[in-house]
Amino acid sequence: VGDVMSHDLHIVDSHEMADSAMARFQEFPNQSLPVVQEGRLVGILTAENVNEALMIQNALRHRGTHGGNA
Predict the structure, then answer these.
(1) Which residues pair with 41 in a beta bridge?
(2) If you count Cβ atoms within 10 Å of the first and of the last residue's Cβ in the chain, which end, N or C, has fewer?
(3) How far apart are CA 68 and CA 62, in angstroms?
Protein backbone atom coordinates (compact mmCIF):
# COMPACT_ATOMS: atom_id res chain seq x y z
CA VAL A 1 0.00 0.00 0.00
CA GLY A 2 2.81 2.40 0.84
CA ASP A 3 4.12 2.18 -2.72
CA VAL A 4 0.84 3.33 -4.31
CA MET A 5 -0.67 5.66 -1.71
CA SER A 6 -0.65 9.45 -2.01
CA HIS A 7 1.97 11.21 0.03
CA ASP A 8 1.03 14.81 -0.79
CA LEU A 9 -2.19 15.04 1.25
CA HIS A 10 -4.37 18.06 1.74
CA ILE A 11 -6.37 17.78 4.95
CA VAL A 12 -9.38 19.48 6.51
CA ASP A 13 -10.01 20.07 10.18
CA SER A 14 -13.19 18.63 11.67
CA HIS A 15 -14.23 22.14 12.74
CA GLU A 16 -14.02 23.66 9.24
CA MET A 17 -17.17 24.86 7.53
CA ALA A 18 -18.53 22.83 4.61
CA ASP A 19 -17.99 25.66 2.12
CA SER A 20 -14.34 25.85 3.16
CA ALA A 21 -13.96 22.12 2.52
CA MET A 22 -15.65 22.51 -0.88
CA ALA A 23 -13.15 25.22 -1.77
CA ARG A 24 -10.38 22.77 -0.92
CA PHE A 25 -11.89 20.21 -3.32
CA GLN A 26 -12.02 22.85 -6.06
CA GLU A 27 -8.45 23.94 -5.39
CA PHE A 28 -6.93 20.46 -5.38
CA PRO A 29 -7.94 17.55 -7.63
CA ASN A 30 -8.66 15.15 -4.76
CA GLN A 31 -11.61 12.80 -4.59
CA SER A 32 -11.40 12.64 -0.81
CA LEU A 33 -9.75 14.51 2.02
CA PRO A 34 -8.59 13.19 5.37
CA VAL A 35 -10.38 14.91 8.28
CA VAL A 36 -8.28 15.58 11.36
CA GLN A 37 -9.04 16.81 14.85
CA GLU A 38 -6.19 17.83 17.12
CA GLY A 39 -3.74 16.18 14.70
CA ARG A 40 -5.52 12.79 14.69
CA LEU A 41 -7.35 11.27 11.74
CA VAL A 42 -11.07 11.15 12.52
CA GLY A 43 -12.58 10.50 9.08
CA ILE A 44 -12.58 10.86 5.33
CA LEU A 45 -14.58 13.52 3.49
CA THR A 46 -15.69 13.30 -0.14
CA ALA A 47 -16.94 16.07 -2.42
CA GLU A 48 -20.25 14.19 -2.51
CA ASN A 49 -20.49 14.45 1.31
CA VAL A 50 -19.93 18.20 1.15
CA ASN A 51 -22.36 18.74 -1.74
CA GLU A 52 -25.06 16.88 0.17
CA ALA A 53 -24.46 18.89 3.35
CA LEU A 54 -24.54 22.18 1.44
CA MET A 55 -27.77 21.20 -0.35
CA ILE A 56 -29.40 20.36 3.00
CA GLN A 57 -28.20 23.65 4.51
CA ASN A 58 -29.58 25.61 1.55
CA ALA A 59 -32.91 23.76 1.67
CA LEU A 60 -33.28 24.42 5.40
CA ARG A 61 -32.33 28.07 4.95
CA HIS A 62 -34.83 28.41 2.08
CA ARG A 63 -37.53 26.68 4.11
CA GLY A 64 -36.90 28.99 7.04
CA THR A 65 -37.26 32.12 4.92
CA HIS A 66 -40.54 30.88 3.43
CA GLY A 67 -42.15 29.78 6.70
CA GLY A 68 -42.03 26.10 5.77
CA ASN A 69 -44.15 26.60 2.66
CA ALA A 70 -41.89 25.52 -0.16
Answers:
(1) 36
(2) N
(3) 8
Contact 47, 31 (CB under 8 A): yes
Is 54 in contact with 26 (CB distance < 8 Å)? no
Strand ranges (E), the chain: 12-13, 32-37, 40-46
The reported pTM is 0.72
| Closest of 39, 49, 47, 1 to residue 23, by C-alpha | 47
pLDDT tens string 4-13: 888 888 899 9
The radius of gyration of the chain from alpha carbons, rounded to an integer in Å, stands at 15
Select from 5, 7, 45 the least CA-distant residue to 25: 45
Task: Enter the DSSP assignment of 34.
Answer: E
